[in-house]
Amino acid sequence: MATLSSNEIKKEKIIIYRDQPHIVISHEMKKFGRGGASNSTKLKNLITGSNISVTFSGSEKADEADVVSNNIQFLYSDETKAYFMDPISFEQVEVEIENIPGERSFLKEEELYLGMFFNDKIISITLPKKMSLEVTSASSRVKGDTANNPQKEVTVETGFVVKVPMFIKQGDIIQINTDEGSYTGKDN
Predict the structure, then answer these.
(1) Domain boundaries, position 34
(2) What angle do CA 52, 54, 59 make, to 5 degrees?
(3) Domain tally, the chain
């Protein structure tokens, strides 16, 4: 575990603050003539998800968090938890549904996700930027409805509902941007 000086605490660094891992969302260095400098940061707690503002003086230090990222495979979910497996060790881990971006919207059986671990405990799941999902329910095209790039809602295999162009039909495989929850294209 490396120790970082105040000026090394920068965006995307993961540090230990109050015994928990935090990612630096933003930082701004301020210099005060002879008085030294300070680093005003915004931190996100990787366990609770809460954001806080912290100012580190020029002499303060922080330990870099020993965080490990591994691919994990989604198995299934129940009312409150999602269950994943490490495809190499076959060890299973569980994550509260509310701690997964998009909750169940983008959980697809056997899909690989990036799991972040701290002290051998999973602290977050990162979704792929784009996912290919099958359309399980789509309304039929309305004749004459062609003005102004018309769209319709479809349901994909995970239960997520997304707006798509009118030509998309049940059984099609479409790509969805998981950050925005929007249609990006059709898979061939």
Answers:
(1) 3-63
(2) 160
(3) 3
